[in-house]
Specification:
single chain, alpha/beta, 3-stranded mixed β-sheet, 17 helices, globular
């Protein structure tokens, strides 16, 4: 039954990617361990990772035969947690001290305060000091909906706990329900590419410009780097994500640019003009306000494969709202459904950031499909994805009862290779999917943000 759900999900994803219906027959699933949830999280992990690999297989099919894919569901689940196994050092806690779930006057609300400016916005509205006790006391004075609106209006990030039926009736939930899983828009012709894939290293020679932050976008570009793409991540001065950077910068080079500065904009424009793929996770109107809207991006780089993501969808009143996986779980009914399933007094979110990770692999799949469209059809396609729409995919399937606990990582799950990261030695969980004849590996270890120059390597 578990494999049947993974196959059904993969079929739905393949249709959204415009993959041939028979392509999914090249994928086989192994492994029986499943993450505990009322939703089929392990199946989503296996299906989304397989979809990214299936796109690579289709790319290779243009110049030979499409290789088969084998996906291990246990390893897929582990990659949806953390792929890195540190040796003698620790990654900082990913959550800020006051981030989390709080009781309001009439329900629950989640505060996301990992970024300093988001934390400052929440504390300014609550008018309290930065301690959990003070925040909890202040939150109890507010109706959840009013507090959500106030914090978001102040530039912060929060989400009221909604049931699935409340989300279905909400204007944003209704907007998301009408959106495709992956929105595709043809942006023009693409006749300049002489690039072809290499059999054992399918994405070698492709340049990927990464304008993303935690977590879906970095997962996508990590996948692309694993099959040989040159990924250059760009962050603004001062930005950091210490709790996840060792996990997601594997195989990438990381630089800083201020896109509000004239010099930074000139460098970015030069980088973009030489890129094959752009992956960006800014809010819906951010690049437009900086003068780099969709038409301008295509003008700078005709034939660009342009892939974007946001939290709450591409239409509706929340299309430009700040959001993260954990907030979308609260908004869309996932955490409320988990609470009912576990008969808990508190909200129960998914055991992993599944919306982020799954959307990341769908982004990677879309990017490779865009490369195929450029090679085969001589067109340039823009793809748009959202965490909320991935949530709808997950929520359309129900899970069988899961074991009480997911087995811990064992030595058999971990590669024997040592990765010399910027923070210390580490290993990685073995790749969850294998494309026959094209191994996934990363040529450089995880590195700190801003550790390299904003330029392409020859």
């Amino acid at each position: 039954m578990a494999d049947a759900i993974a196959v059904a999900m993969l079929s739905e994803i393949a249709d959204a990617l415009d993959l041939p219906a028979h392509a999914i027959n090249r994928v086989s699933f192994t492994g029986s361990d499943r993450l505990q949830s009322c939703f089929p999280v392990t199946e989503l992990a296996a299906a989304s990772i397989s979809a990214a690999c299936l796109s690579v297989s289709e790319l290779l099919d243009l110049f030979g035969a499409a290789p088969p894919i084998s996906t291990d569901s246990r390893l897929a689940s582990l990659w949806f947690r953390f792929s890195i196994v540190t040796r003698g050092w620790k990654i900082p806690a990913p959550w800020d001290a006051i981030a989390g779930d709080y009781r309001a006057q009439d329900g629950w609300i989640k505060l996301h305060t990992n970024a300093p400016h988001h934390k400052a916005a929440a504390l300014a509205i609550l008018g309290c000091e930065a301690s959990r006790a003070s925040v909890a006391n202040a939150v109890q004075q507010w109706p959840a909906d009013d507090l959500e609106q106030a914090i978001v209006g102040a530039g912060g990030c929060a989400a009221k706990l909604r049931s699935m039926s409340e989300w279905r009736d909400h204007p944003q939930g209704q907007a998301v329900a009408l959106e495709p899983l992956i929105l595709r828009t043809t942006r023009g012709t693409a006749n300049d590419s002489t690039w072809q894939p290499t059999a054992g290293r399918p994405l070698k020679g492709l340049r990927v410009l990464d304008l993303t932050r935690v977590l879906a976008g970095p997962v996508a570009t990590r996948f692309l780097a694993g099959y040989g793409a040159q990924v250059l991540r760009i962050d603004p001065p001062g930005w950091d994500e210490p709790g996840v950077i060792p996990e997601v910068t594997l195989g990438k080079r990381c630089a800083r640019l201020d896109l509000r500065d004239a010099d930074g904009r000139r460098v970015f424009e030069r980088l973009l003009s030489q890129a094959d793929i752009l992956v960006h996770g800014y809010r819906a109107d951010a690049l437009e306000r900086l003068g780099f809207g969709a038409d301008m991006r295509q003008s700078i780089r005709p034939g660009l494969v342009d892939v974007s993501l946001d939290a709450y969808g591409h239409s509706g009143p929340w299309r430009a709202r700040r959001g993260f996986d954990s907030l979308v779980q609260f908004s869309s009914g996932i955490a409320a459904e988990g609470q009912q399933w576990r008969k808990s007094d508190v909200p129960v979110s998914l055991p992993v950031q599944a919306l982020d990770h799954a959307t990341g692999y769908l982004i990677a799949a879309a990017a490779v499909r865009g490369v195929i469209a450029r090679l085969r059809d001589k067109v340039s396609i823009q793809y748009r994805l959202s965490l909320a729409r991935t949530a709808k995919l997950l929520c359309s399937y129900k899970s069988e009862p899961s074991p009480e606990s997911f087995p811990d990582v064992t030595d058999d799950d971990v590669s024997r290779q040592v990765e010399a990261t910027a923070w210390g030695p580490a290993s990685r969980i073995l790749p969850p999917s294998l494309i026959k004849g094209a191994a996934s590996y990363w040529e450089t270890p995880a590195t700190a943000l801003g550790s390299d120059q904003a330029e392409w390597k020859d």
